[in-house]
Amino acid sequence: MFWTILKKEIATLKCSVLLVLLIFFTLFNSPVWAEPMADFIGQAGVLRISGGTAHIPVMKEVAKLIMQANPDIQISIAGGGSGAGIKQVGEGLVDIGNSGRRPTDNEIKKYGLGLNRWAFDGVGVIVNRDNRVQALTRAQLQDIFSGRLTNWQDVGGLDKEIAVFTRDEGSGTRKVFWKKALAKKVITNKALVVVSNGAMKAGVSHNPYAIGYVSVGYLDKSVAAVALDGVKPSLETVQKGEYTVVRGLYSNTKGTAAKGDREGLTKSFIDFLFSPTGREIISRKGLIPASR
Amino acid sequence: MKSHVKRQARGSRALFFSATVVGGVLTLSIFAFMVILGLPLFSTHSLTLLLTQKWAPDQGLYGIFSFICGTCAVVSLSLLVAFPLSLGNAILIHLIAPRRLARFLHQVVKMMTGIPTVIYGFVGIFFLVPLVREWFSRGSGMSILSAALLLALLISPTMILVFLESFAAIPVSHIRALEALGGTRRQKLVHVILPGARTGIMTGLLLASGRALGDTMIALMVAGNATAQPESLLDSVRTLTAHIALVMAADFDSIEFKTIFACGIILYLWTAILTLSLRHLHFNSTKPSHDQSF
After folding, report:
1. Beta-carbon separation of B249 and A12 below 8 A
2. A206 contact residues in B (CB cutoff 8 A)
3. Does residue B35 fall inside a structural domain?
4. pLDDT tens, residue by residue, A79-135
5. Would you say residue B52 lies in a domain?
6. Model's pTM, two decimal places?
7. Phi and psi, residue B276, nearest 5°
8. Are A48 and A76 contacting, i.e. CB atoms less than 8 angstroms apart?
């Protein structure tokens, strides 16, 4: 197939995510989609996307389809976290800045952002696969993250120190988790800080005594999802509304859609996320498609 | 003909001069840029508080003291590990190893200088961190120790190469004199090479500490980035460089983001001091060594 080399936008220091992505990108090669991609016919150019790491699996899949259908289009996808996404689209460094939280009113006003919420996503607590603690109450969770409980024994596990993983200040996943699961309680300053959903999963899957949190879209067999107050985070429980640590996933653009100043590739890409094919990809990646 | 040469010389002088000026102005303006952008922060949070308080944004505390401690701990431990290793390695290559082995080792060391630090970070996460966690069965393995060990690996080649260069610069006449007196290899090392290479050894140390100080990726990936004040080598720390990388994504207008400039200024001054002491070292050492030469 036509595998164009993605232009690397080293806009953030967190470009390791991008590197890993590029490798994965070239490894997977699914059959060509039958879905007509009328919108992209005749278009050419580069579309730059960065920001939230929860969005990446969907972005990757959509970009692959588009680039297969039209080799004249190049789409680059970088991580960086929600904060970076909002900042970079605001300053015109990228065309689409993803965020796993709604940009603040201040950010929307300052940059003149247009918001496109195309999916809902749960944020689930994860532990290592070998951990026998796979259910916690909210109170226990808050005590663990605040550093009051420091040993797995206190919640029915082994006599081992708990390694708490959290995300950096710019993370949308962190913000939602802190607000809805921790009820805005303090996160211990002994917590280890990682910079993406992928790094969180890697960290927890390699440390038998770790606890952390990721987008439900990232849950797989390498880590164990922890039931919170009896509800396991999964696509189904989020969909049914049983699991409540949920947030919207946004793809932000400069200028609002209503004013019509989004044009060409950016608009087609966002429209595609709301198309039937787009929605199908979104749910296949463990997220819940949202309507406009 | 002559005037042509002169003109050429003048032309190249102007070129080099302007390059120097541009370089110098850029360096200084980066400093000015950091101070100016940091001003809003310093006007609301006094610098002394920033330097001494703890980091707790939810309580309105934005002190970077623990990051400074973390940086010191990681850098000094890595030097402590890397210095004897590098000195031993350099002595092995220069003095002890048979020629072919020495040449091979020298090539390996040269190659090591080119390895990107993100690779060390990767290896660290998958091999070193679990090892440290299991050996000490305390903490998460993401610690000062892990980061310092990897950093030691990163800075050793720099040190070894500088050491080797300074060994090679020792006047042959000194060594001949000692050999003529029937000196052993050990005497050669202790009485001629090491004293003669003193400046070079200091240079290597300073250069390496600069490299350790400036590295971001290793600390970011394996030191764990916890904001707590470290109490043991197995505690996780956040270095100044890692803090900058982590807070980069925060809102521009937030105070969290502005602490980047405080970190930047400290790193800048720290490096400047290292560079100045290097200069001082060379300035003081070049003259006497010339006078002493036979």
Report:
1. yes
2. 125-126, 129-130
3. no
4. 888 988 999 999 888 999 999 999 988 889 989 898 999 999 999 999 999 999 999
5. no
6. 0.79
7. -65, -40
8. yes
Which among B62, B142, B260 is the top mutation candidate for probing chain A, defined by the most A β-carbons within 10 Å of its own β-carbon?
B142
pLDDT digits (tens, 9 = 90+) for B66-114: 999 999 999 999 999 999 999 999 999 998 889 999 999 999 999 999 8
Which residues share a beta bridge with A47?
A75
The 10 Å Cβ neighbour count of residue B275 is: 13
> Rounded distance, CA A251 to CA A229, Å?
31
What is the domain range of residue B106? Answer: 72-238+274-286
- Among A80, A191, A209, the residue with its CB nearest the CB of B249 is A80
Residue B160 within any structural domain of the chain: yes
Question: Which structural domains are found in chain A, ordered by start?
Answer: 34-120+249-289 (3.40.190.10), 122-246 (3.40.190.10)
Q: Where residue B213 sits, what CATH number does that domain have?
A: 1.10.3720.10
- Nearest residue on chain A to B217, alpha-carbon basis: A13
Contact A189 B250 (CB under 8 A): no
CA distance A234 to A231: 9
Q: Are A13 and B58 an interchain contact pair (Cβ–Cβ within 8 Å)? A: no
DSSP structure string for B219-230: HHHHSB---SPP
CB contact under 8 A, A169 and B236: no
Domain count within chain B = 1
Q: Is residue B170 part of a domain?
A: yes
